């Protein structure tokens, strides 16, 4: 007995879709397909946003001009609102009573509803509009019976229109665009509806009110957006200035680190050479001493390697390392000569033994390099900001400090902004960093005659202290501060008083 076989399926006109074929893209779950449904959905979303803006103020109940620097500016919106209310309240009641024939009670209630909320313009203009506008509509309905054609403007009397324009202007200064568009649309629909309700009483005043109200909203909104843009620009400029100053500080510290690497690397190289050559220069060294010198040389080489790796990290991309020796006091004369060639009548006062010679004091290389950089930056600022000004550079040893002074007189011709562009005082940041590095003090500032002074006091090592390691009396680097009560850093500079 044969088993029954399944009957074949009838052929289909649609070819089967492979299992790996991509599925045609369709609308996501809950998403409307493109077309007129999407347009209606967008319109509904805009309408909901507008209704939310009309019922929820965009700003807290803070007074207008609350951030103004002067008190009279902060009180100005309240003064305007109080004056407007004090004028419009009696005028509205009198106009409704005498010109439109309303009873005193109704005229007082309508006038109070239209004028008293104007006191809220300074801090709650949207809430005030929700009171003033319905009061204006109610007043228009009360005016239907006693008003005869041609006897007065309708649907809103002149005081009501004036108060509404002030209120719309205040709304433009506080609320976002969605709320302003919603207020204007409500005004348009209400005005046109009232005009169709009693066409014999309407004289086109509602159309003029719609146009003037739209203008008040546009002007107020434009002023608000302009103020917000200016505040955002000021905030961005403040952030940019702070970031630029921070970046300049980091760049100067990186530069100082690179220069210090060269200074320290020189000493480490000397230690390596002396430790390697000690067994050959000194005869009869025990084996322990030879091993100790070898260990010192190996440690010095390892330190040099680590410093070179650090220098690679610190050096900016594409920058090449300097192969020339680091400058010092012996090259300050060249700086002064370069300033003279640039048109600055500069003169140098420095003892000969500071530049070179067997009697040169023990100046650490960090102090030597910092003094050179301070003079270099000070002369560059003179060339940039005070070209042609008489300048004096003084470098000398006073007690346990190296004193560096650069004083320039007033400039004959004012420097244009274009000539001084890009020079925002960043050189002073580098000076302060170098002075802080050596544990000294820096005093900078303008002079009474219009000049400028840069005075730096860099401590030198005490007798018997190793060169290159100056330490302040308290064992830590002092903060950057002007000289104390002991007197100015340069007593003999009579024409350079402290600023």
User: What is the terminal separation in angstroms?
Assistant: 122 Å
Largest sheet: 5 strands, mixed
Number of strands: 5
Secondary structural class: alpha+beta
Low-confidence stretches: 1-36, 417-425, 464-499
> Residue-averaged pLDDT, rounded?
78
Strand content: 5-15%
- Separate helix tally: 12
How much helicity do the residues have?
40-55%
- Sketch the topology as an H/E string, one letter per element: HHHHHHHHHEHHEEHEE
| Largest sheet, spatial ordering of strands | 1-2-3-5-4
Radius of gyration: 42 Å
Q: Using the alpha-carbon principal axes, give the shape.
A: elongated
Transmembrane segments: 75-96, 102-121, 128-147, 153-171, 178-198, 204-223
Protein name: histidine kinase
Domain Histidine kinase/HSP90-like ATPase: 370-461
EC number: 2.7.13.3
Can you walk through the features of this model?
The chain is an alpha+beta fold and 499 residues long. Among the domains are: 54-203, no CATH class; 252-314; 329-410 and 425-459, Heat Shock Protein 90, CATH 3.30.565.10. The protein has helices spanning 36-55, 71-98, 104-115, 125-142, 158-174, 177-197, 205-281, 287-314, 332-341, 352-355, 365-385, 426-438, and strands at residues 346-350, 391-398, 401-408, 441-446, 452-459. A 5-stranded mixed beta sheet has the order 1-2-3-5-4. Helix 1 (36-55) crosses helix 6 and helix 6 (177-197) packs antiparallel against helix 7 (205-281). The N and C termini lie far apart (122 Å). Residues 1-36, 417-425 and 464-499 have low confidence and may be disordered.
């Amino acid at each position: 007995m044969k088993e029954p076989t399944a009957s074949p399926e009838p052929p289909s006109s649609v070819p089967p879709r492979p299992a790996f074929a991509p599925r045609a893209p369709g609308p996501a779950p809950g998403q409307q397909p493109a077309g007129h449904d999407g347009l209606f959905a967008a319109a509904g979303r805009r309408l909901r946003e507008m209704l939310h803006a009309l019922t929820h103020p965009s700003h807290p109940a803070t007074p207008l001009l609350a951030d103004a620097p002067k008190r009279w500016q902060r009180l100005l919106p309240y003064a305007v609102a109080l004056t407007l209310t004090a004028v419009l309240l009696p005028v509205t009641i009198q106009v409704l009573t005498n010109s439109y024939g309303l009873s005193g009670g109704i005229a007082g209630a309508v006038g109070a509803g239209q004028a008293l909320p104007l006191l809220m313009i300074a801090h709650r203009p949207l809430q005030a509009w929700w009171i003033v506008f319905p009061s204006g509509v109610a007043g228009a309905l009360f005016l239907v019976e006693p008003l005869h054609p041609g006897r007065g403007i309708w649907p809103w009397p002149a005081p009501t229109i004036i108060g509404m324009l002030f209120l719309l202007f205040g709304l433009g200064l506080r609320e976002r665009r969605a709320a302003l568009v919603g207020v204007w649309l409500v005004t348009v629909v209400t005005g046109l509806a009232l005009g169709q309700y009693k066409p014999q009483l309407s004289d086109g005043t509602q159309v003029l009110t719609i146009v003037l109200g739209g203008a008040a909203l546009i002007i107020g909104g434009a002023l608000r957006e302009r103020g917000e843009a200016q505040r955002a620009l000021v905030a961005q400029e403040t952030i940019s200035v702070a970031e630029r100053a921070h970046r300049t500080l980091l760049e100067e510290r990186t530069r100082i680190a690179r220069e210090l690497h060269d200074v320290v690397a020189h000493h480490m190289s000397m230690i390596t050479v002396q430790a390697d050559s000690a067994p050959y220069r000194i005869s009869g060294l025990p084996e322990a001493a030879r091993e100790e010198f070898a260990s010192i040389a190996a440690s010095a080489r390892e330190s040099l390697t680590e410093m070179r790796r650090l220098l690679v990290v610190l050096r900016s991309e594409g920058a090449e390392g300097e192969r020339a020796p680091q400058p010092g006091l012996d090259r300050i004369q060249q700086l002064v000569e370069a300033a003279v060639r640039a048109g600055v009548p500069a003169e140098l006062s420095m003892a000969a033994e500071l530049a070179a010679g067997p009697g040169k004091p023990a100046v650490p290389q960090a102090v030597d390099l910092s003094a050179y950089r301070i003079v270099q930056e000070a002369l560059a600022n003179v060339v940039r900001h005070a070209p042609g000004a008489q300048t004096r550079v003084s470098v000398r040893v006073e007690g346990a400090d190296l004193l560096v002074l650069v004083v320039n007189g007033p400039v004959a011709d004012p420097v244009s902004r274009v000539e001084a562009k890009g020079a925002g005082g960043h050189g002073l940041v580098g000076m302060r960093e170098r002075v802080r590095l050596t544990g000294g003090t820096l005093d900078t500032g303008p002079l009474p005659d219009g000049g400028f002074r840069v005075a730096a006091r860099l401590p030198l090592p005490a007798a018997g202290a190793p060169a290159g390691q100056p330490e302040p009396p308290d064992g830590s680097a002092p903060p950057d501060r002007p000289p104390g009560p002991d007197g100015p850093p340069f007593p003999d500079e009579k024409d350079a008083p402290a600023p």
